[in-house]
Amino acid sequence: MQRFREPETQWDQHRPTGHPRPREPRLPDMEVKTRPSLSNQPHEELRNRLQQILRQDTNLRGYGLEGSVIDGIARVQGVVDTLAEKLYIKELVSAVPGIMGYQDGVSISTDGAITDGQVEMEISEELDADPQLSGNVGVQVRDGTAYLLGRVASKESESQVVRLASGARGVISVISQLQIDPHLEST
Q1: How high is the pLDDT of residue 141?
Q2: Would you tell me which CATH number, out of the four given (3.40.50.150, 3.30.1340.30, 2.60.120.1140, 3.90.1170.50), belongs to the domain 36-108?
Q3: How far is CA 42 from CA 34, 38, 134, 178, in A?
Q4: If you placed Cys at 152, which of 14, 115, 157, 162 could pair as Cys (CB 3.0 to 4.6 Å)?
């Protein structure tokens, strides 16, 4: 008599007995390190605080984002328009007392089709509008990823360019290939 064994993964459900590919090993449960102060705060209280912050923030309240907290790890789900908003959510949530980590469940959406060329043009226009960046920084966009190229005067300038590119619709990630050149500040 053969005993039924519960599948270890969803892929094992359809694998017949004696299949040449062995069952996948069961992964150990992930341990979450807890802070002593977390034991005083029920998950429901943290979830309510997180949800209140998401609903009251002027930049996010129109999106109807949903937040949850399990073992001190916050997860926010929903859809926003830009990568900058997605990054802002992570910063906002990470600053909540009692939240020990963040799982990103936020997607970036655009209304209608937007091409890489259109995204590239939008970022280029923003770069050209800044006299310190004009002529020194360029961008190439491939499959929604903006690659920043050129030279900037400082790490702060690089961060500014990354933030600027993150605000363009259709950008799903930004990769900086910028070089820091302190001589640019004196010109």
Answers
A1: 94
A2: 3.30.1340.30
A3: 13, 8, 51, 45
A4: 157
